């Protein structure tokens, strides 16, 4: 089984997001970037499946500028076998490359690589769209299991436990399939120094997105980006009548 794992370079989760002065997007200058945490979980799960003998090859792919190859090297240090960088003039941060464009590019790579399984993070922590996996499943006509917290191979099928509002749901999918990972699926390992050095020697292919014949022109236009208003402190009331009066006359919610 060949597994394809898409990953994204995003602002590190420890960094406090700052909005540009002109409100055109988030400030990325001199900001620490790293692999999207949900994608780290996807890489870890793919590596575990390879260690169990379920998978034979792990191909990691990212879409962005040339600098994005650092997340591919990180993925290969964790255990991916080779990487593919799809370069695009559009930024992949907020307001840039949209989920549909990413899904269409991934569709072309899947048609070329012919993986049996695609494992990807359920969302990126910058735009929080949570759409790419579902769109990719629709484009490919493949079964999908989203928000996976457990993956088991039973016979020729994969049993995926999903986290839903009412609890847990287990679905059975036949490969080829799309799986998106949730936080409780696993805990990603740290890449050891020897594996980091080995990752530098692993093959990394660069593809120009223009050669894939995909129109990634944004369909949405960001008008502005602002921080949410700061919450005001609460107050105490002495009676139910006072509470009702404030809800009615001040908050105007009743």
Question: What does this molecule look like?
Answer:
The chain has 6 helices and 11 strands. The protein is an alpha/beta fold and 254 residues long. It has a single domain, classed as 3-Layer(aba) Sandwich (Rossmann fold), CATH 3.40.50. The strands form 2 sheets. The chain has a 9-stranded mixed sheet, with helices on both faces. The chain has a two-stranded antiparallel ribbon with strand order 2-3. Strand 4, helix 2 and strand 5 form a beta-alpha-beta unit.
What is the overall silhouette? globular
Question: How much β-strand is present in the residues?
Answer: 25-35%
Helix amount: 25-40%
Class per helix and strand makeup? alpha/beta
Strand order of the largest sheet: 9-8-7-10-6-1-4-5-11
The CATH homologous superfamily is named HUPs
Short description:
By secondary structure, this protein is α/β, with parallel strands linked by helices. The chain has helices spanning 37-51, 69-78, 99-113, 132-140, 193-199, 240-249, and strands at 2-6, 9-11, 33-35, 57-64, 82-87, 117-121, 144-154, 157-164, 167-174, 177-181, 204-208. The chain starts with a strand and ends in a 5-residue tail after the last helix.
């Amino acid at each position: 089984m060949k597994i394809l794992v898409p990953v994204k370079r995003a602002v590190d989760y420890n960094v406090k997001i700052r909005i540009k002065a002109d409100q055109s997007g988030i400030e990325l200058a001199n900001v620490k970037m790293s692999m999207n945490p949900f994608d780290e979980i996807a890489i870890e799960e793919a590596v575990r499946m390879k260690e169990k003998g379920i998978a034979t090859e792990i191909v990691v792919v990212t879409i962005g500028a040339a600098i994005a190859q650092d997340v591919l090297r990180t993925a290969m240090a964790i255990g991916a076998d080779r990487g593919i960088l799809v370069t695009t003039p559009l930024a992949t941060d907020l307001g840039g490359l949209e989920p549909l464009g990413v899904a269409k590019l991934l569709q072309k790579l899947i048609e070329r690589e012919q993986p049996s399984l695609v494992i990807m993070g359920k969302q990126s922590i910058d735009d929080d769209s949570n759409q790419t996996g579902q769109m990719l499943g629709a484009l490919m006509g493949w079964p999908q299991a989203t928000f996976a917290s457990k993956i088991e191979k039973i016979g020729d099928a994969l049993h995926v436990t999903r986290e839903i509002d009412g609890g847990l749901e287990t679905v059975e999918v036949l490969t080829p399939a799309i799986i998106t990972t949730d936080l409780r699926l696993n805990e990603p390992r740290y890449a050891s120094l020897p594996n980091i050095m080995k990752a530098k020697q692993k093959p990394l292919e660069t593809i120009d997105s223009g050669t894939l014949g995909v129109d990634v022109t944004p369909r949405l236009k960001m008008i502005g980006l602002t921080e949410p208003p700061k919450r005001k402190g609460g107050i105490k009331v002495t009676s139910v009548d006072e509470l009702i009066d404030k809800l009615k006359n001040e908050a105007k919610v009743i």
